[in-house]
Amino acid sequence: MSPQPEIRENVELEALNTLHVPARARFYVEVRSAGELAQSLGWAATEGLNVLILGGGSNLVFAGDFMGLVVRLAIRGRRWEHIDGHNATLVLGAGENWHEAVLYAARAGYRGIENLALIPGTAGAAPVQNIGAYGVELCDCLESVTALDRTTGELVVLENEQCRFAYRDSVFKQTPDRYVITEIRLGLSRSRPLMLGYRDLQEYLGDTQESSLDPLDVAEAVMAIRRRKLPDPDKVPNAGSFFKNPVVDGATFESLKARFPDIVAYPQEQGVKLAAAWLIDQCGWKGFRNERVGVHNRQALVLINHSCGSGSDILTLAERIRGSVTARFGVSLEMEPGIVGGPG
Ligand SMILES: Cc1cc2nc3c(=O)[nH]c(=O)nc-3n(C[C@H](O)[C@H](O)[C@H](O)COP(=O)(O)OP(=O)(O)OC[C@H]3O[C@@H](n4cnc5c(N)ncnc54)[C@H](O)[C@@H]3O)c2cc1C
């Protein structure tokens, strides 16, 4: 049995979320193993407390204090398994930094996650919203996830198909109080093709031949593009893209296209995905700021905490943006980060 890790009271969370909004946890614990996780969840159940699982805090908005137990996943460790010819499985503890893991794999010559460089947060949170960028999603190479099933208290392994991955979605998001991910397994390869089809990447790489590139080159290209476009949350507090790209049916898209010929959209297997950034930009929000919060001046999807803004300042701005996009385009924007804490 693992020893009970130290549970602290009344802990400030401002430094533990990338929007840097102030909020307190009534109780807070950092867990370094699946055993410590089980102990902490057991303690919360005995005390009748709600639990928030926290990774790097880059996809959350604290609407206020969290009156239960915040469990920060600090389970570390990376190892290779099943090295077989060109293929290998990279196993990551849930508390591993995602971007460092991307560089670690790329430096070893393994392909699969290099397009996901510079996404903040932890490996354990990556499956929750099936992180994606530059033409690649986590589900493209995730083999399986080990998670503690809170309904049984047992560790279970969920294979890729059982994770019910979709665009920014998974079983972990659909049943938020059920699984806590302790470890993920990624199927990587030294020989699979590099994914260079995304327009920004193509423009950046120009005439460079794929055969002259390795996965580290691609990771570095993605990092350079991202640094040009997105604010660094360590310098400018933000939570990345604040809204998902909405998917509409073909008829809705045709009617929007007739009214707004420049609309930016991407055909999907089912329906058409609209660029939320374009919709927001058209409503005049890019670069907007009040005394505390605002919208990034190069990327309309990114809301920024300029100066001592609170979670509710951010959420009020998000609601105003959503309202104006609905009024102009009749399209409803869905927030990407989860809202936690606050009244109710
Ligand atoms: C500047 C910036 C750029 C970003 N770019 C992208 C991008 O390109 N693509 C993209 O997809 N996302 C992007 N994001 C969003 C974010 O980085 C990812 O969603 C990331 O995976 C969140 O990781 P985290 O550890 O910070 O999770 P947190 O914010 O701590 O948690 C997010 C959610 O996951 C849950 N959770 C966390 N850990 C676990 C676990 N071990 N088990 C079960 N549930 C857990 C939490 O309870 C919460 O519901 C960006 C964010 C920022 C700030």
Mean pLDDT: 95
Unreliably modeled segments? none
CATH class of the largest domain: Alpha Beta
Please count the beta strands (DSSP E, at least 2 residues each): 19
CATH overall fold name of the largest domain: Uridine Diphospho-n-acetylenolpyruvylglucosamine Reductase, domain 3
The profile of the biggest β sheet is: 5 strands, antiparallel
What coarse outline follows from CA principal-axis ratios? globular
Structural class: alpha+beta
Topology as a string of helices (H) and strands (E)? EEHEEEEEHEEEEHEHHEEHEEHEEHE
What distance lies between the first and last C-alpha atoms, to the nearest angstrom? 35 Å
Biggest sheet strand line-up: 6-7-12-10-11
Percentage of residues in strands? 25-35%
Topology:
Elements: E1 8-12, E2 24-31, H1 34-47, E3 51-54, E4 60-62, E5 66-73, E6 78-84, E7 87-93, H2 98-107, E8 132-133, E9 136-137, E10 142-149, E11 154-159, H3 171-174, E12 179-189, H4 199-205, H5 215-229, E13 238-241, E14 247-248, H6 250-259, E15 265-267, E16 272-274, H7 276-282, E17 293-295, E18 302-305, H8 311-329, E19 338-340
Parallel strand pairs: 2-5, 3-5, 4-19
Antiparallel strand pairs: 1-2, 6-7, 7-12, 8-9, 10-11, 10-12, 13-18, 14-16, 15-16, 17-18
Bound molecules: flavin-adenine dinucleotide.
Flavin-adenine dinucleotide binds at residues 18, 52-60, 73, 94, 119-122, 124-126, 128-129, 131-133, 172, 179-181, 230, 233, 238-240, 338.
